[in-house]
Amino acid sequence: MPEAPEPPATARLTVLSGPSGVGKGTVVAEVRRRHPEVWVSVSVTTRARRPGEVDGVHYHFLTGAEFDRLVAEDGLLEWAEYAGNRYGTPEAPVRERLATGAPALLEIELQGARQVRARAPEAQLVFLAPPSWAELVSRLAGRGSEPPAVQERRLAIAQAELDAAGEFDAVVVNDDVTRAADELVGLLTAPSSGRSVGASE
């Protein structure tokens, strides 16, 4: 496999989603490290910036009014609210990237992935799955920063998210971060001919 795959002739929007704790951010970070030519969308959020976070790199940090304006202008490909904060994907940068003939990658939650499918049915949806349910439980419990009630709620949500895997075009198992990253890049850069991404079943 070449270290820097050539962009496909037809640009493709790929959405990576999966349950909390499955390692979406870790896999995307590995993709960026090994394949810096892959463009990853930067989400907007109304939550406060955490120590070490850089505006425009980790997120675009917006006020509630700025977020409201983007929603009103239909400027978000998807958006959702989590724990009292809103997160979304600005549509213009994604469309601009695809217009250059190069692929774009979104790392978002299940609710957002469903919104993207509705707005951009040509998008390829990739589900990142844990090697097993036990492994996912271990990863979520290993965070150790949440009370048991919160962990139980996260596990219930994660189970519902795992049940949605059948809605996706491809499943990548995160049993090895490097291998999962390479598999994701392969899906990003594979020719789209011969598949009907987003077609109704």
From TrEMBL:
Q: Which residues of this UniProt protein bind ATP?
A: 18-25
Domain Guanylate kinase-like per the UniProt entry, residue ranges: 11-189
Matching Gene3D superfamilies: Guanylate Kinase phosphate binding domain, P-loop containing nucleotide triphosphate hydrolases
Question: What EC class is this?
Answer: transferase
Classify the main location.
Answer: cytoplasm
Compartments, record wording: Cytoplasm
Q: EC number(s) on record? A: 2.7.4.8
Q: Which regions span the lipid bilayer?
A: none
Q: Which GO terms describe its cellular component?
A: cytosol
GO MF:
ATP binding; GMP kinase activity
Query: Which Pfam families does the protein's record reference?
Result: Guanylate_kin
Q: Which HAMAP family match?
A: Guanylate_kinase (MF_00328)
Cross-referenced PANTHER family, in alphabetical order?
GUANYLATE KINASE (PTHR23117:SF13), GUANYLATE KINASE-RELATED (PTHR23117)
**Record family assignment:** Belongs to the guanylate kinase family.
Function (record text): Essential for recycling GMP and indirectly, cGMP.
What name has this protein been given in UniProt? Guanylate kinase
Taxonomy, top ranks, is: Bacteria, Bacillati, Actinomycetota, Actinomycetes, Geodermatophilales
**Encoding gene, per UniProt annotation:** gmk
